[in-house]
């Protein structure tokens, strides 16, 4: 490691996943396959939505953005992790580390906000079907997505600017596979109380607020179904909300499963597993969830691969 001065470092050491050397090749192939599946699967979703005019609706507009975010989210951390596993080169420069942290926070925030926006879209579709096209007009959908980007960029930039004010004058070893903000704060020899306050405040905005919106939306949907209980209504609700509800359950269920698991007492271990779920597993599964549980997506995919029926213009 090179020292710039007594209070800052020029690089960090990413220890990566706790995998034995003889198992590196197996895990490298596994994670490479999962990453390629993530990229190709989500690109396929974007392509289908772009080509088939029947999928030019608010729900699929949000889904195409979620697919783009999933690709970006994985690409922030997985290629660097794979390169380190292959070359055993563990160092990452200070600017690269800060940039990686920024984009990780950015895409994590957008992911949360988009899930909340999609839950609101499903609520309007089921509870106010007659006013759906009026409420979820194109301009409003663009505004929701743009607002999610602006809010996420602001949050990530704030965390990054505050971190750059800190000094790192002791250990430069990061026991993780990417530059995690909580771990970087632990490595700092400066006062991090302001950073921790911002994490708590920003977390309430980009995590608690979307989650509350999701719970409220599905609470209203459930109440609407119970008011007029029928097999047809339940089937319609499951068809409309099934894919999104599955993704939400996978995304937030990871937190519940990990942080309430008695077998995992190490907070860093929990953080590493959760990060793997968010950056590797969930983005890979999303295309399968939305394609296998969605009739319109399966129809569009069949048309694309059979090429026997032209897409609507």
Structure keywords:
single chain, 313 residues, 3-stranded mixed sheet, two-stranded antiparallel ribbon, 74% helix, globular, disordered N terminus
Give the SSE map.
Blueprint: E1 3-5, E2 8-9, E3 11-14, H1 24-51, H2 58-87, E4 91-93, H3 94-127, H4 132-135, H5 138-164, E5 173-174, H6 181-187, H7 193-227, H8 231-259, H9 267-292, H10 295-306
Parallel strand pairs: 3-5
Antiparallel strand pairs: 1-2, 3-4
What would you say this structure looks like, in words?
With 313 residues, this protein is mostly helical. Helices cover 74% and strands 4% of the residues. It has 10 helices and 5 strands. It has helices at residues 24-51, 58-87, 94-127, 132-135, 138-164, 181-187, 193-227, 231-259, 267-292, 295-306; strands at 3-5, 8-9, 11-14, 91-93, 173-174. The strands form 2 sheets. It has a 3-stranded mixed beta sheet. Strand 1 and strand 2 (8-9) form a beta hairpin. Helix 1 runs parallel beside helix 9 and helix 3 runs antiparallel to helix 5. The longest helix is centred in the C-terminal third of the chain and has 35 residues, at 193-227. The model is unreliable at 1-7 and 308-313 (pLDDT under 50).
Strand order of the largest sheet: 4-3-5
Based on secondary structure, the structural category is mainly alpha
What would you report as the Rg, rounded to the nearest angstrom?
21 Å
Poorly predicted runs of 5 or more residues: 1-7, 308-313
Average pLDDT rating: 83
Extended strand count: 5
The DSSP helix count reads 10
**What composes the largest sheet?**
3 strands, mixed
Question: Rough shape?
Answer: globular
Order of helices and strands: EEEHHEHHHEHHHHH
Strand content range: under 5%
Range of helix content: over 70%
Termini separation = 58 Å
């Amino acid at each position: 490691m090179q020292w710039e001065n007594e209070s800052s470092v020029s690089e960090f050491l990413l220890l990566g996943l706790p995998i034995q050397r003889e198992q590196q090749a197996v895990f490298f192939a596994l994670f490479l396959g999962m990453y390629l599946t993530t990229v190709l699967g989500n690109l396929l979703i974007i392509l289908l939505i772009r080509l088939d005019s029947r999928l030019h609706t608010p729900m699929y507009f949000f889904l195409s953005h979620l697919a783009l975010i999933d690709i970006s989210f994985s690409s922030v951390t997985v290629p660097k992790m794979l390169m380190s596993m292959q070359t055993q080169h563990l160092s990452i420069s200070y600017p690269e580390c800060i940039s990686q942290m920024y984009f990780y926070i950015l895409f994590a925030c957008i992911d949360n906000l988009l899930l909340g926006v999609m839950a609101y879209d499903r609520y309007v579709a089921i509870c106010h079907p007659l006013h759906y096209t009026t409420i979820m007009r194109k301009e409003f959908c663009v505004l929701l997505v743009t607002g999610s980007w602006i809010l996420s960029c602001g949050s990530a930039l704030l965390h990054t600017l505050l971190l750059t004010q800190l000094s790192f004058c002791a250990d430069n070893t990061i026991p993780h596979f990417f530059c995690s903000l909580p771990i970087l704060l632990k490595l700092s020899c400066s006062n991090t109380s302001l950073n921790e306050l911002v994490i708590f405040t920003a977390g309430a905005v980009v995590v608690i607020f979307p989650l509350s919106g999701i719970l409220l939306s599905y609470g209203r949907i459930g109440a609407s179904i119970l008011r007029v209980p029928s097999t047809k209504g339940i089937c319609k609700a499951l068809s409309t909300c099934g894919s999104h509800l599955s993704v939400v359950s996978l995304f937030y269920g990871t937190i519940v499963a990990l942080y309430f698991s008695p077998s995992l007492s190490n907070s860093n271990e929990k953080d590493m597993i959760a990060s793997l779920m968010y950056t590797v597993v969930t983005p890979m599964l999303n295309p399968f969830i939305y394609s296998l549980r969605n009739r319109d997506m399966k129809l569009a995919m069949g048309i694309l691969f059979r090429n026997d029926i032209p897409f609507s213009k």
